[in-house]
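**User:** My hope is that you can spare some time for a protein that puzzles me. As I understand it, each token names a local backbone shape. I would be glad if you read both lines and explained how they fit together. The protein I mean follows directly.
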Amino acid sequence: AMNNHNRHGMPAAPVKSEPLPDPTLGCQLRTTFPVARIKRLMQADEDIGKVAQVTPTVVSRALELFMIKLISASAMQARAAATGGSGPKRILVQHLKKAVLADETFDFLREIVDKVPDAPTKGK
């Protein structure tokens, strides 16, 4: 019979049965952010001392996941704004703005998107 303790006699942590959400939202990435360039940017800041070898790699991955979340949210806004047809052919800056305003995790971008006009100007 199995007991609920690990090999050291300590109570075992409960096992979660629910699957973890996929942070990539099912996206297959063919590109990555350049780790060497990230390291150079980090070291360009005089307040930052030595950078651990794994740090730029982790930052690169975090940037990928951030971009997936932002672009996916923007695509959702573009689909929601579509009237008839199969939807928009591209994500506009206004869709990015709506995505930022709709998700509080993007609050740090509000100051930037506040400068974006709400509707694209017609004609040239």
Helices lie at 35-44, 55-81, 93-102, 110-113. The mean pLDDT is 80.
